[in-house]
Amino acid sequence: MAFSYRNRKGQTYYLHTRLTTLRGGREQRIYYFSKDAADALDAVPDGYEAAEVTTSGLPVLRKAAASKTG
């Protein structure tokens, strides 16, 4: 089952990934949200969480806050 995120406007977005080549020749994996469910990831990568940009309502992937134990 594909990972989905429903924003405050009720729109559903699905998490995707792509391997892209940078100018220096280095490859980097990027993550993005799309309304298309085809080829979507099943889960958010470890250490990340889905959040919403407050002005536009678009979902973004950001590093998860470190949990405080103690």
What does the secondary structure layout of this molecule look like, with pairings?
Blueprint (H helix, E strand, L loop, with lengths): L3 E3 L5 E10 L5 E8 L13 E5 L6 E5 L7
Antiparallel strand pairs: 1-2, 2-3, 4-5
Termini separation comes to 35 Å
Largest sheet: 3 strands, antiparallel
Number of strands: 5
User: Tally the helices: what do you get?
Assistant: 0
Number of domain units:
1
In percent, how helical is the residue content? under 10%
pLDDT averaged over residues: 92
With strands numbered from the N-terminus, the spatial order across the biggest sheet is 1-2-3
Share of β-strand residues: 35-45%
Please state the CA-atom Rg, rounded to the nearest Å. Answer: 14 Å
Derived from helix and strand composition plus strand pairing, the structural class reads mainly beta
> Which regions are unreliable across 5 or more consecutive residues at pLDDT < 50?
none
Shape: globular
